[in-house]
Amino acid sequence: MRKVLVVLLILVIGLVVAVDRIGVRIAENEIANQVAAQYALPQRPDVQIHGFPFLTQAVGGEYQQVDVAIGDWTQEGVTVRDVTVQMRGIGAALGDITSGNVDNITVQTATASALIPYEVLRQRAPEQVKKIQSKGDDLQVDLGGRLLGVPLSGTAVVSVRATAKGIAVTPVSVSPSGSGVPIPLSLVRSRLTWNVPLTNLPVGSRISEIRPTGDGLRVTATAGNLSMGNLNGNR
Question: What DSSP character marks residue 186?
Fold first, then answer.
């Protein structure tokens, strides 16, 4: 009898776990559909609901953490890569999720992250900027061509910061190569400062942090006390 009870218990636990996992998949698929529709994405994002058991969260209508991997995302003609959104403290009735109703879904905090490749920055830069790479907390650009009729060759260190109009890229120092003609920093700054018109990420909040990496600028935006029904794609 004891062995029979053990076997039955194992079967019941396995069934509960299976049902729980099925529920997670259904909810993840529906959230992916909602995000794709809300931001007019060309493909559904990957969604992961954290926390176990899922059914307890679903019944209570409160979820610990949901991660959404969007991939490429475009705003104002600027395409960024590796866009992810981490949402914490989600309030969502199971009926709202399964019916696709986002109006009553709330999020305590949401953090979005994306990578702006250096080639995307260069495409928005003046023609004298030939290459961009990281240099500590700033960037280094290779310069070439002519500036006001004067040959330009060397490198410049530029800073990046978030503004209301996007990401401002501003020279902070310039170094001519070899016997190149020295160019005043004030002239370089006035002619080779540019802006990348990316202000928001998919949480309805402005970019607040910029960090140079080997592959590009990692940008982050955080928002709190969100209503999913009030968000839009900002495209």
Answer: H
Cα separation, 34 vs 45, whole angstroms: 10
Q: What is the dihedral of CA 200, 205, 209, 214, to 10 degrees?
A: -40
Q: Rounded to whole angstroms, how far apart are CA atoms 100 and 74?
A: 24
Under a CB-based contact definition with an 8 Å cutoff, are residues 93 and 137 in contact?
Answer: no
Give the closest residue to 28 by CA, choosing from 72, 56, 71, 67: 67
> Can you tell me which residue has the tokens 């926390």?
51
Span 53-77, pLDDT tens digits: 777 777 777 888 889 999 998 888 8
Question: What are the distances in angstroms from CA 12 to CA 9, 17, 18?
Answer: 5, 9, 10
Quote the pTM value.
0.81
Nearest in space to 192 (alpha carbons), one of 170, 175, 176, 212:
170
Please tell me what DSSP assigns to residue 121: H
